[in-house]
Amino acid sequence: MEPDSLQRNETVNPDSTELDEYRATEECLIIKKDPVGKMEKVKAIIVLLSCISLLSIRVNGIGANWGTQTSHPLPPDTVVQLLKENGFSKVKLFDAEDGTMHALKKSGLEVMVGIPNDMLQTLATSMKSAENWVSKNVSAFVNNGVSIRYVAVGNEPFLETYNGSFLQTTFPALQNIQGALIKAGLGNQVKVTCPLNADVYQSASGKPSDGDFRTDIHDLMLAIVKFLSDNSAAFTVNIYPFISLYSDANFPVEYAFFDGNASPIVDGSNTYTNMFDANLDTLIWSLRKNGYGNLPIIVGEVGWPTDGDMNANTQYAQRFNQGFMTHILTGRGTPMRPGPIDAYLFSLIDEDEKSIQPGNFERHWGIFTYDGLPKYQLNLGVGNSSRGLIRARGVQYLDKKWCVLKPSVSLSDSKTTDTISYACANADCTSLGYKTSCGNLDTRGNISYAFNSFFQKNDQDDVACDFSGLATTTNMDPSTGTCRFGIMIEVDHAISSKLPQFGLLISSFLLYLFLTAL
């Protein structure tokens, strides 16, 4: 027997507002083609004005994920300015760090604050802890001009790779944070959500209409979905066509993009030529089958990395992200849910300290580099969109010098292997590898890249460019082609977490061993 909620929400048709917007978009497309054809001129003008207003609303709705797992993050004020100047209207965070939140005061940006997975246990077992968290991280900032709209409880806590670590704590934490928001008088203003990976639902046939929640978490998902619905909250999902391509050698490349070149998947009366639409509609079918076909959906993360894998490059990233933006700007939505899509691009800036356990690409999701430089042209459809992305302003760098392998050092030197391993373990060498941005470097180039990464991460400390006497500094930029040998942001212009002093002690120790061996 179907649950009662199925009878209450048995249709997935959009609400009247979404339907009106969808129809308005259709009229916009017709008028742009023939503004004085069958339609009267007056009506054409009226509808065109409506189009401008409608598209403005949609475009301004694009958000960005702002992660801070970097050794030298840009100052929060700089990032907020970067968001605003590039037309983002909302930002999704993975915590509620004070500096970040203070920078967002009176910024006009809509904010989704995050609660890390390692806090779920405490919040699930203590209502007092939940109340304290809301008081410190939500109420205090709402009262000081931060437009917090959502609290994201956990981040993809049901990933199969977590082996059930958060199955018992996520929902109770979600309930307690909601209770704390209500107690604080913010229940209507701030909504809870739980960003989930798309692996929480599946389709055995690959067709969206066969979608349903994973069997091992089916009951838990229904409880969460009902809770979100009862509290007028949204389901947040992260969708990554790149991951499908990365993990499946047989995945059709064209199906990851929005160009319409892929062999279509036909599902009843619906046809799909891109994975994003099919994946989102699989979720919508999963919700519909369980009685919640009208539950609002937020796409919490969607994007494409630029390095660290053969399919992670600026060409594919630009193609995917521009395709996605163009797709959502039409306002057509998906076959199962026409209308605007609420989404956050992943991500804003590269993060050089993210875990690379899923893959080296994890440190390269940003549409901007670590120092706020646009990686490629991307039209977000806002403001002076023709000028493309705008770089971060006022970024200051260390001296123009790099650390490289001494020309006199022989590659047969036994110390080279250990030193490059050490440098890569304590810096970032994810741009080295097959078909990566630095994949064409020779052996000497690879070693120099590793040395320089370590040197820059340690704020160009002289000790960090020794490597048992194998390295030296140079004023000549060793960058070549697509491979950029970076220069670090000045310490005074970054909230630097730096490399632990233990790393420098090891480097000094290696130098000591080398000198004493002479």
Automatic annotation (TrEMBL):
GO terms for molecular function: glucan endo-1,3-beta-D-glucosidase activity. Its EC number is 3.2.1.39. Residues 401-485 form the X8 domain. It is found in: Cell membrane. InterPro entries: GH, Glyco_hydro_17, Glyco_hydro_17_plant, X8. Its main location: membrane. The keyword Signal applies. One of its GO terms (biological process) is defense response. Keywords: Cell membrane, Disulfide bond, Glycoprotein, Glycosidase, GPI-anchor, Hydrolase, Lipoprotein, Membrane, Plant defense, Signal. It is a lipid-anchor; GPI-anchor. It is an enzyme of class 3 (hydrolase). Belongs to the glycosyl hydrolase 17 family. This is glucan endo-1,3-beta-D-glucosidase. It comes from Carex littledalei.
